[in-house]
Amino acid sequence: MEDAAHLAGVPDEFQRLWTPHRMAYIQAGPEPLRHECPFCEAPKHPDAERLIVARGETAYVLLNLFPYNSGHLLVCPYRHIPTYDEATPEEVAEIGALTQIGMRVLRQVSHCDGFNLGMNQGAIAGAGVDAHLHQHIVPRWNSDANFFPIIAKTKALPQLLGEVRETVANAWPA
């Protein structure tokens, strides 16, 4: 294998963080799905295309396009509702069950040490998509907090979203 110093280009002090999955946003132009709800739109497409890992009767699970960590899942009801108190008892039960399964699957495939679970309801509470209820499942590792997010406001994600989706979907119980 050749030493990088002998390849074309001028060496500089910059580090490169390759994130090829972000090309989808660049190619889609500014604010893709600005006029449609991404969580209503996703189930209308093939699972791999929209990063869906599992589908239930009233809710489904997909990878977050803007993950805090590799394997960051979202559990969404199919119905377009903004807050948890508007969910039916069936939706609440399935969101809870899918969350538990998601945690078990992530523990199995990524060997995480813990989780952050949460629902940001309303723009004022930090919801990126405030019109459609969704539960976050963020896997955490003892060593996942390093200087990047604190100093450089950058998250280093070791796997591409498509690879994570395939791993999680394949491990999801039938």
From TrEMBL:
SUPFAM superfamilies: HIT-like. Residues 38-147 form the HIT domain. Keywords: Nucleotide-binding. This is HIT domain-containing protein. A motif (Histidine triad motif) lies at residues 132-136. The keyword Nucleotide-binding applies. It comes from Microbacterium istanbulense. Signal peptide: none annotated. It comes from the Bacteria.
